[in-house]
Every structure is written in structure tokens, then in C-alpha cells.
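Readers of this paper often ask what the protein records in our data store actually look like. An entry from our holdings is shown next, in its original layout:
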Amino acid sequence: MRLMLTVILFASLSLRLACASPAPELPKKPSMNPHGGAMGGGSISPHGAPSGSIATAGPVGMTAAIKGVTLSGYPKMKVGEAFDNYRHFKQKSWRETTSVGGTVYVDFTGSAPARWLDFKAKREGISASGIEVKFAIYPNGEYGVVMASRTVVKTDGKTNRYPLPDVKSVLDAIYSNRKIDL
């Protein structure tokens, strides 16, 4: 079974790379940094199912694949379970994009509207604030968290993002369902 999966993985990656235009060198898998930075994960097959999992009837989007895996440091809960059940966000969304080099980025965005009595936020034109967590799935199937940002949504619809230096504290708060101070 592993041999067959390896052959299929190799063939699909070869076909994907043959069809793609030449790209710059891809970054290596992020390493786990307890003080912030990127968080390592594992690997995902090109068909979206986590490596070692039961295969599905057809290809699944990479968002579903990320939601179905665990991150190193958080082996007891899948990404989707932790992020979708985080109770401090009123709005949650997932989106994915693919770079020219074949890396797939899956972004989780969660936000909460400004509080009624938060006059400072209202005066500054802030309608909501939240967090954006960016996952990367590299062409070789490895994945991890590459960035976390604080988001500020203005009343004019513009969203500003401010990278956070400590990704681990954001993930710790989400996985333990604690409020993140924005």
C-alpha cells in the first residue's frame, strides 16, 4: 500500500512539475520554533488526504486536507476542530491560493466586531479585528504554519494585516480556546 501511494505521489508530482513553468527555488519545510516563527506539521498527499489516512473517493481541496491534520505540538486535536470551534470569533473563513512554484497557502481568518462601548476603535474607524493564520503546503507534501497576523477591518472595508512575532502563543490560545488579546 505504501509503495503504491509512493508511486502515485511521485507520478503526480512529476506530472505537476512538468506542466509548471520554471520557478525559483522553494523554501524548505519550516521548523518548530517555541518562541514564534513557523510551526512544522507533517506531509499531505497531493490528493488532499493526510498521509497515512484512509483514502477518499476523489480529490479533496487542500483546505479540507489542512483541517484534517494535526500540527506538531498539538497532536490531540485536528487543525479544523481547533480553529472551527474557537469561540472568540464571530466570523470564521478559510481560503486557499496556489503560488507559481506550486506551494498552496491556506488562510484561516477569524474576526469579531468592535465592542459597543469601544469608543477608541469606533473613533479610529475599526469595525472588526481578528487573526489570520497562514498554512503552507509545499509541492513535496510537507506542511506547516508559516505566519500569523493581527487583522484590523476598517469601516471603509479595507483590511490591514500586522504580522505577529509569536505564532506559538496564537496557536496555544486557539487550541486552548483562550481569548487572544488584539
Observations:
- The chain has one domain: 30-175.
- Residues 2-19 form the longest helix (18 residues).
- Residues 30-175 form one domain.
- The chain is about 25% helix and 30% strand.
